[in-house]
Each structure stands twice: as structure tokens, then as C-alpha cells.
Amino acid sequence: MRAARRRSNTIASLPGFEEESSDFTHDAQLSKVAVLFPLPLPEPFDYCAPDAWSLQPGDHVIAPLGPRSVRGVVWSVETKSANAANLKPLESKALAAPLPDISRRFIDWTAKYVVTPPGNILRMVVRSTEALSPSPTYAVYAPTETMSGAVTPQRAKVMSEAAREPATGAELARRAGVSSSVVKALVEMGALTRIDVPEDAPYPEPDLSLPGNSLNAQQDAAAEMLKESVRAGDFQAVLLDGITGSGKTEVYLEAIAETLARDPSAQVLVLLPEIALTQAVLARFEQRFGTRPVEWHSAITQKARRRAWREVNDGRARLIAGARSALFLPFRNLRLIVVDEEHDPSYKQDDGVAYQARDLAVARAKLGGCAIVLASATPSLETLVNAQAGRYRHVKLTARHGVAVLPDVELIDLKIDAPDKGRWLSPKLVTAAAEALARGEQVLLYMNRRGYAPLTLCRACGHRMQSPDTQSWLVEHKYSGRLVCHLTGFSMPKPKECPTCMAPDSFVAIGPGVERVEEETRQLFPNARIEIFSSDTAQTGDQVRAIVERMAVGEIDILIGTQIVAKGHNFPLLTVVGVVDADLGLKGGDLRAGERTYQLLSQVAGRAGRADRPGRALIQTYAPEHDAMIALSKHDRDGFLAAEAAGREAMGMPPYGRLAAVIISGPDEPTVNYAAITLGEKAPSADGVDVWGPAPAPLSVIRGQHRRRFLVRADRGVDISAFMAAWRERVKLHSSVRVQIDVDPYSFL
């Protein structure tokens, strides 16, 4: 612990904190208090506080840190400490409930695992100072038993409205059709009484009396196995492995109901990939439990964030659905975690603190002694190997619900069945789409690239438009007339002339994006109702819902989308799925490229034929001989993953080995190069560990930051986190250089 020297006590005025009446007299018994701050500091700092404050680990406090007063969390308390007198005193403590012990243990464990200061993890936990205060209130007015003065028709209307439902003064005046002065007069007469109502009302309790959807025999057996894991009352990990359309959601909803029914204080967390885009799943929760789950993701308002954090911390929020960051909420009694689509790459965070939420969810369940369900139609190899080794229970759903069957999958070899010149859709795919439209059915065209074209090239001199200070090509967005960098967000109008050779109107679009596919589709099917579904056209939950609803009720004939279309949507009239460029995900030398391609294309293909009409998926590829493509055409997931596992095992790669990456970045290239060489020379020598690098990153410049990378491979039994921590401690680098450690990297850019 670092000691903070004593200074005069000043009371902080931050929201949620109050001044303690106890002062720091010479006679007071003092406690030594270690405080962890939500800052990138290596350890807690020591302070003193009177024993009379009765501080306990987890209390939120204000402490002096340099010239500032900073919020922190008590990490340990040593009462009647003899050496506390020379420490700086704490300034105040919050009224809120302490951060739970399990949250503090999870912070410490995570910090060691991902090799980052624990304050960085605490910062992800304590998101809102406002949440530490009681909810703000607003005034509503209700009628009293007594009233003096004349009862005019206007006053009678107000009283009638207040009796029907208490409301704010402005709302009562509006409903009664009178001026606010009438309401004010009734308050002054004592006819209306003020009631302070919390702005952040408690969330409705889930209604456990509502029945779930009827389950078939296989679903019912799977639900019972999940409920057995819940009833065990300790750490149990289950892989819920079901093909697309098999009803995995219905099955794990029964496990949620069992958890909530067994313990009136139990909390359940459901992690969803890109939750703001998966509104259909949330609607299913509402149907099952009579209320929507508490949402936690980047798109919610600050007020909603404040309310959710407070209610979770107080133990009143019982069913929470969120993105990966929801894992760090301060749960009081978390008894079940569900990781839906556990294979999804969006569970991996690369910016800031790098972590894989699926893996941390398993660790959180183990630390807290609760059950965890990992659900997927295409499980990650890591999860599947754990299930096969008996570390996780393996529950399978092998048939689609009802009469639906898996779609036929056909590979279109673009070397043989090539599109016409200047086109991107092959004749086979166009014919299949035309036949579906003629039957009154729907078509989905999948192209995992936003915009019109990924590269804008000058036909006169070959100049490529590139993002400034970043080695990333600008993507043309034809409808907005702009060139956009999807990595940094930079955008600019498309130039009228080439900046290199000054040739006018010389730029040509290279390659397809969804806008270009839409342009071609409108030419082929001029009478069809066509829409694009991407993060450009659906930037909010409401926009996503609107497109999904129009597609579900048949108001769209052809939907052209990026990977957002694979997020569990159910379109009864969709029978033909066309994958425009199946090879896109195989490029770049990523360790998991084949696995990710199989997972994503399997999910996309699974959108077809989910009701009583047979489905068909056509996959355009230049590599029909690739293992992932063959497995897709044969519905041979297990065979593909077995081959993938054998290759990984032979190389000692995850899940049969461990990986970590080190990214060195800074504004000055020579300084970054020197830092990378210095760091490489200081790498510890350890059996079972290979260190490769340094080398320029594939994107060696981003936002003016030059980047170099190391990749570390270790045998499975090696504590790679400890290795990386020891390596980091050996080197002191220039202050302009940033070093990021990524344990279990998923991105190699």
C-alpha cells in the first residue's frame, strides 16, 4: 500500500457523499484505511479515518489525491492503528451501500488476469457518482380529506383528476384544462397534498406466474438439466449447444425462472452481443416475465445508467440484460449468468482494458459460486473443448422447433459461375432470388462491408484515398457522398479531383459494399421493396426495431445487410439467403479466421427457413475447397471443429496453448522502435514460452500513433498473466510510449 501524507481535512461536495460529524482530534482512535481509486494506479493508497466512522471494505469515500479530491473505494481497514496518525485523513463517505465483497474480489482477480492496474477495473465498476445518492425526486399531488373555500368547476376538475391519478401540478392543470394557478390555490388551501416520488423508481418485479412457451421433449429435457445446475447452488458451467432455430432462448428462460423463484433476492445477468441491436430477444423476455429486463449498454441514457447501477447495487434489480460491460455491475446476489451467442467476437474488448467477457463471466461465476450457461449454435472452440473435457456440462438441441428444418446450403464457385462483368451477384443467386420473390417470399443478401466500395482509386495515377495519420483506406459511401474511415471515424467529401495528379472526376470505386449490392439489386429487381440493414441505416434501437418489424411482417422483399442481420432475428417469410462474398473473413492470417467465418456464415444461413417454408442458402466463394465452406455445405460443424482443433493442438495454439500480445505505440517512430527493441531485450526466459517480435503491426499507424507488436505463445500450464506482468515490470520506457497488454488476443491488427 502507498501511504498518503497528512493534510488538513476538507469536506468534498461531490454528489452522494456527506460530511462525517467525527473530527480528527488527538484523542480519536484512528483506523488505517486502504483506498483504491478508479485510476491507472498500481495499488491502493493508505489514509486515516476515525474508528467512529465504522468504515468497512467496499465503502465509497472521498480522499485527497495530490491537489484533488477523488472518489475511491475502501479496500481494507485496520482499526486502532498505531501508525495512522501521519496519514492524510479521508474527507467524506457515501451514503450508498458498500461495493460487495464479490465485486472487489472480481476486480483483483481480473486485474491480475488481464495484467492491468486494479484501478482500471474499478473504473469500469463505479460508473456514476450520481448513483451513490438516493434517487432525485419530483412532486406529485393527491387529494386530501379536507378542503376549505369555494369549490369552483375548475377546482372540481383538478380534484377529480388528482383522485383518478396523482400527478405533477403541470400535468394536473393540463389534464383538467385549467391554469397552473388553480392547482397552486388548491395546494395552499390544503385540498392537495404534495408527495415526493423518486425519479428512479424501482424496477417492476419479474412475474414468475406467467407461463413459458410450450417446449418439445428435447427442449424440456434441456431446460431440466439447466435447472438442475441452478438448484445445485454452486459453480456449474453448462454449454447449451443448439442449432439455429432450436429454441435455446426458450430453454434458458426456464433456467432464469427457476433461479428467480428459488431465492427472492437472486439476481440474473444475461449477456447479449450488441444488445442495443437485439430487441427481439428483449421482447421475448418481456413476454415471459411481464417486464423488460434492466438494460445496460452504451446506448442507454445517463439517467438510465444511474438508475440501473443503483438498483443493481441495492439488490433490487433482479433480471439484467446487457453488453459485455454489464459483467462489472455490483451484483449483490448473482446466481445465474447466461452468455448468449457465446462465440460472438463482440464479447472481446480491444480498446482500453482488453478482456474477453465470456471468459471473465466464467471466472465471475466461479468466484461467486453460481451457475453459468454458455449458449450458441456455433460454440467457440475454447468452450467446446472445455465441454468435451468434462469441465462444462454439454446440453444439446439438435432439431429446429416445430416443423422448421435447416436450410439447404449450396456453394457457388465464382471461378465457374462468375457474375457478369461489373456485377457482384452470380446468375445462380439472381435466379434463386427471383424464384423466391415470385412465390411471395423474402430474400436476404449478406455482405459484411458497409458503404459503397472499400477502396477509392484514381484511374489516372493510381492514388488511393487513405485516412490521414492512419494506414486505412477510405470507404466510399455513395448516398452521403463521403469517404469514411471505419477504423477512426474520419470522413470527408469525395474530392472532385485527385489530390496527387489533379485529374478531374478520376476516382473509381473498387470492390463492393452493401450500397453497391443494393444498386445492382435495384437494377435486377426494379419492382422489389429493398432496404439496407447496417449500422449506417440502423444507428439506434428504434431504427433496428423498425427494420426488423417491417421485414417480419413482409413489408420488405429483399434485405441487404452486414453482420447485424445475423443477430437472432426471426423472419417467417425469409427463404433465400445469399452470401455475396464468403471469403471476406478468411483474409488477414487471423488464427480464428476459419472458425469465425464458419460461425458467422452459419448464423446468416440459419436465418432462412425458420418457419414452415423450406430455406435455401447460397454462398458465393472463390475457395469452395476451404474446410469452412465444405463444412457449411454439409452441415458438418463437428467435423470442421475437430479438424480445426487438431491443427491448433499441433501448433500449441488456443485452446491448447495461451497467447498474449504486446502493442507498443507512440507519436515518434524512432522512439517507438527503440522502446520495442528495449522491451524485447528484457523479455524473461521461461520454459514453454515463445516470444515473437517486435514487428510493425499490420496497421502500423493509427491516428498518428506508430505501432509495434509482440506475440507471446505459452504452453497451457504456463501462467501467461504472471509472465507478462513480470516482463512489464522489467522495463521503464519513455513517457510518450504506451504499452498495452492483451491476454488472449482476438485482433492481430
**Unreliable segments of 5+ consecutive residues:** 5-13
Task: Report how far apart the termini are.
Answer: 37 Å
Number of strands: 33
The portion of residues forming beta strands comes to: 15-25%
Helix content: 25-40%
Shape by Cα distribution: globular
* Helix/strand class: alpha/beta
Total helices: the number is: 19
Provide the residue-averaged pLDDT. Answer: 89
Main beta-sheet annotation: 7 strands, mixed
Strands across the major sheet, in which order?
1-4-3-6-5-7-2
| Rg, nearest Å | 30 Å
How would you characterize the overall build of this protein?
The chain is α/β, with parallel strands linked by helices. The chain contains 19 helices and 33 strands. α1 (101-114) packs across α10. The longest helix is centred in the first third of the chain and has 16 residues, at 217-232. It is globular and about 90 Å long. It starts with a strand and ends in a 6-residue tail after the last strand. The model is unreliable at 5-13 (pLDDT under 50).
